[in-house]
Design brief:
Shape: globular
Number of helices: 2
Structural class: mainly beta
Number of strands: 31
CATH topology of the largest domain: Immunoglobulin-like
Helix content: under 10%
Strand content: over 45%
Largest sheet: 6 strands, mixed
Distance between the termini: 29 Å
Number of domains: 3
Length: 415
């Protein structure tokens, strides 16, 4: 399986305009936060942080249970390239990765998003019983994390789907009532890696880590309309017929756009309510699995049949293709015997377990770096560069989240 996709930012005629827009928007955001009482988290001051963040929403008004579709616009205002991890996850969500017993070490890390949501019209502490919440939804299928390079004055975008719950307040009868209306939305984008210092020392590159807070966007949250009585419910069971708990169940519309997501309860049950009529896809997968476990079915809701019931059976899958195995971003830096970076080195990395063969290729850029998505375990890299003898290296990619790194030397006297 080749991997030649580039996720680096693009430098264009819009770069300087976006940089000015980001600077102005961030300044206004700081003022708005001070006025509204929303405080940025402690950490590096925004004016000293090379990574700038601006958010936008697809729609200014969202009706429950539909999510907020958010775009993160990042800009590198610094003087050196930054490496960023693509597939942002909810900061509050615990991570669980299965690691084999013989694994001596592993890495952790990645990028996260913390959502802050506050009503525009303030409520007294006695009125508000529970604050509003925003949660970043997970990938519907097997995740595909990436590492990409953002050069100086370059821009990039990443999209996230946010499930929203409005604040609640106590009513006269003591019951909780949701507070619909105008809200202020902002996010804190962060990244951390267990081996960040090792990467900086070995490769002499900057994998960005830290926190940066976005601007504030106002939007309207509306209740589920009365004419949306549809629902989809069911259970997830294993091949033995036993209920499976904490399985990620995703609901997508006919265009396969993610609508909502839940975890199954101890009895393997899940449910989605407040749905309009139409076709929906229901997908389940194990969060901690390093192979593709997804199963899916569809349900069509009509006025005659407004409620759909589904049972999802998670059967063991035979894995024959590398795309069904979780890959890990790996950053390489190629140098010559004098420790000078080598560009235009072609890497071909192979992995095999006897039944699956993975073949990934890439080429280094001017600073000698290249990122490839590899399967954790024993890999073999073939290095080729015009005018240099071919070389082969063994590359043992560690288990776990985050990224891995390797510095490889190629005897290349005829640079």
């Amino acid at each position: 399986m080749g991997n030649t996709h580039s996720y680096s930012g693009s430098k264009s005629i819009f770069a300087s305009k976006l940089a000015r827009t980001l600077a102005l928007t961030l300044a206004l955001a700081v003022a708005a936060q001070a006025k509204s009482g929303m405080q940025a988290p402690a950490g590096t001051p925004a004016e000293n942080e090379p990574l700038k963040l601006l958010i936008s929403v697809e729609q200014q008004s969202v009706t429950a249970p539909l999510p907020v579709r958010l775009t993160l616009h990042v800009h590198n205002s610094g003087r050196e390239p930054l490496w960023l991890y693509r597939r942002v996850r909810d900061r509050a969500r615990p991570r669980e990765v299965r690691v084999s017993e013989e694994t001596a070490n592993m890495t952790t890390g990645g990028s996260t998003l913390a959502v802050r949501l506050e009503p525009v019209e303030s409520q007294s502490p006695s009125q508000t019983t529970e604050p509003a919440e925003g949660k970043v939804l997970e990938s519907v299928g097997l995740p595909h994390p990436r590492l990409f390079r953002l050069g100086p004055d370059e821009d990039a975008e990443e999209r996230a789907v946010i499930q929203i719950s409005p604040a609640t307040a106590a009513s006269g009868d003591g019951k909780k009532r949701p507070l619909w209306g105008r809200y202020r939305l902002s996010v804190t984008y962060g990244a951390e890696y267990s081996n960040a210092e090792e990467i900086a020392r070995n490769l002499r590159v900057k994998v960005w880590r830290g926190e940066v807070t976005s601007n504030v966007v106002e939007m309207e949250l509306r209740p589920t309309p009365a004419d949306a009585p549809g629902s989809v419910a069911g259970t997830v069971v294993g091949s033995d017929g036993r209920a499976r708990r904490d399985v990620i169940v995703s609901l997508s519309d006919q265009q396969e756009r993610l609508v909502a997501q839940v975890l199954t309860d101890p009895e393997g049950r899940f449910s989605f309510t407040g749905l309009s009529f139409g076709l929906y896809w229901v997908t389940a997968r194990l969060d901690s699995s390093t192979t593709d476990t997804t199963v899916f079915r569809h349900a069509e809701l009509t006025p005659d049949q407004p409620a759909g019931t589904i049972e999802l059976v998670m059967l063991p899958k035979e894995i024959y293709e590398p795309k069904a195995i979780l890959h890990k971003p790996v950053l390489f830096r190629l140098t010559d015997s004098a420790d000078r970076p080598l560009d235009k080195v072609n890497l071909q990395v192979t992995w095999s377990n006897g039944s699956v063969l993975d073949n990934v290729t890439g080429q280094t850029i001017e600073d000698g770096t290249v990122t490839l998505d590899l399967i954790p375990g024993r890999n073999f890299a073939t290095l080729k560069r015009r005018g240099c003898p071919k070389d082969e290296k063994r590359v043992d990619v560690t288990q776990g989240d985050g990224i891995d790194d390797f510095k490889l030397a190629l005897d290349c006297a005829g640079r």
